[in-house]
Design a protein that fits this description.
It is a single chain. The chain has 453 residues and is an alpha/beta fold. The protein is built from 14 helices and 19 strands. It has helices spanning 24-38, 57-70, 83-92, 125-135, 158-167, 193-200, 226-236, 263-276, 293-301, 313-323, 346-360, 364-367, 392-405, 431-452; strands spanning 8-9, 12-16, 45-51, 73-80, 97-101, 110-116, 152-154, 180-184, 204-208, 240-244, 251-255, 260-261, 284-288, 305-309, 327-329, 335-337, 376-382, 410-415, 421-427. α5 packs across α6 and α8 (263-276) packs across α11. The longest helix has 22 residues, at 431-452.
């Protein structure tokens, strides 16, 4: 049996700021433990630390700095920048480790810490467990001697480096001249760099969510609140709307009619474009178990395969690396294009969509809806005690639901990794049948959970 993870979840450590796992004390010990883990050899060791715009970043950042310096590492601070920028800078600066302080799409009350290895990829589950174990040990006896402490400095041109890297992913022979774009930066980490990249490529920009105050990150804006983006696109008669989340590693698009374009459609669009250009590797796309069955059916008609992983962009990346594939992502808008980045990059993914729009010269509403989405419904069922999923009644109900849907649909039951919830998902051709199946499964799970409690 594997050791339970106490601090790390599917995307680093996350929690309410100044409580539980997200205090300055925890951040200090994390910096010490991660620093000790990655101090290897006699060279000067370096960590790159970035953050989003949350108030609590002012607490978490100096605690991490103290921890890494105490472990003997030099610290390079880059300020508010997207998560993919931190991954890029970690590799570019040949640092030993990278850190992003962010709770992604969560409200300002939360914060999180994501760690990247020297290759720019998120750390494995095994490495995170080693860091957790080290945090619980007697760290004091292993910290650096007084003359081996690290130093802290700030990299003033970090934003400019990411801007140039992002622009380089857009085809050199194309421009965004004449394209009007609303870009919603969620008052988060991309609030400076994202509008700059689009403007320098020639677009007319209507920026929103670019006035962070420490409290308004993701508040009424960003990729999880598409209503603002939709309204702005229609108001300004824009050609496309781009919404990033708090750390800009994922996106949502809105076409000129105000219709949303999710991660599945973005994956399909880029995959088809790259295949036509001879750039697609691995003859397929990597996505999670949550991606719509319509994506799988579309790819099959194109002669491509959809590889599914468990939820979490890190698992998508691991599968991509293991199977030599260069496109993967999640329905939520994490899109990983390994030709350009080691993690999800909302801005770079948007640039690939814009490249297709420019090349074909047709509106987003005609280009971005690549396949017909099957009706999909997801509901949560809370339970007490042990998981009800192995109860005979639940197993039988799932089998009956799958038989009813046949090959044109599917059922997925998934335990939440952070709270006692069963996530119940079904999809199929008939929306009414899907709703009936989800309702029936939820009732069965509730009853089974009550009996097992």
């Amino acid at each position: 049996m594997s050791t339970p993870r106490r601090l790390f979840g599917t995307d680093g450590i996350r929690g309410t700021a100044n409580q539980g796992s997200m205090t300055a004390g925890v951040a200090l010990r994390l910096g010490q433990a991660a620093g000790l883990m990655f101090v290897r050899g006699a060279h000067r060791h370096q960590v790159v630390i970035g953050k989003d715009t949350r108030l609590s970043g002012y607490m978490i950042e100096p605690a991490l700095v103290a921890g890494f310096i105490g472990a003997g590492m030099d610290v390079t601070l880059v300020g508010p920048l997207p998560t993919p920028a931190i991954a890029m800078l970690t590799r570019s600066l040949r640092a030993d480790i990278g850190v992003m302080i962010s709770a992604s799409h969560n409200a300002y009350e939360d914060n999180g810490i994501k760690l990247f290895g020297p290759d720019g990829f998120k750390l494995s589950d095994e490495t995170e467990m080693e860091i957790e174990s080290l945090m619980d040990s007697e760290l004091g006896i292993r910290l650096a001697a007084s003359d081996k402490l690290g130093r802290a400095s700030r990299l003033d041109d970090a934003g400019g480096r990411y801007i140039e890297a992002a622009k380089a992913t857009f085809p050199r022979g194309l421009t965004l001249d004449g394209i009007k774009i609303v870009v919603d930066c969620a008052n988060g980490a991309g609030y400076r760099v994202a509008p700059t990249v689009l403007w320098e490529l020639g677009a007319t920009i209507i920026p929103v969510g670019v006035e962070p105050d420490g409290f308004n990150i993701n508040r009424g804006c960003g990729s999880t609140v598409p209503d603002l983006l939709r309204a702005k696109v229609l108001e300004h008669k824009a050609d496309l709307g781009i919404a990033l989340d708090g750390d800009a590693d994922r996106l949502l698009l809105v076409d000129e009619r105000g219709e949303p374009v999710d991660g599945d459609q973005i994956l399909a669009l880029i995959a088809r474009s790259w295949r036509q250009a001879g750039r697609l590797q691995g003859n397929g796309v990597v996505a999670t178990v949550m991606s719509n069955l319509g994506l799988e059916q579309f790819l099959a008609k194109e002669g491509l395969k959809l590889h599914r992983t468990k939820v979490g962009d890190r698992y998508v990346v691991e599968h991509m690396r293991a199977h030599g594939m260069n496109i993967g992502g999640e329905q939520s808008g994490h899109v990983i294009l390994s030709d350009y980045a080691t993690t999800g990059d909302g801005l770079v993914a948007a640039l690939q969509v814009l490249a297709v729009l420019v090349e074909v010269g047709r509106p987003a509403s005609e280009v971005c809806t690549v396949f017909h989405k099957l009706p999909q419904l997801l509901q949560n069922v809370r339970f007490a005690g042990r998981s009800p999923l192995d109860q005979p009644a639940v197993v039988e109900a799932v089998a009956a639901a799958e038989a009813r849907l046949g090959r044109s649909g599917r059922v997925l039951l998934r335990l939440s990794g952070t709270e006692p919830l069963v996530r119940v998902m079904a999809e199929g051709e008939d929306e009414t049948v899907v709703r009936e199946i989800v309702a029936g499964l939820c009732d069965t799970i509730k009853t089974a959970a009550e009996r097992a409690a």
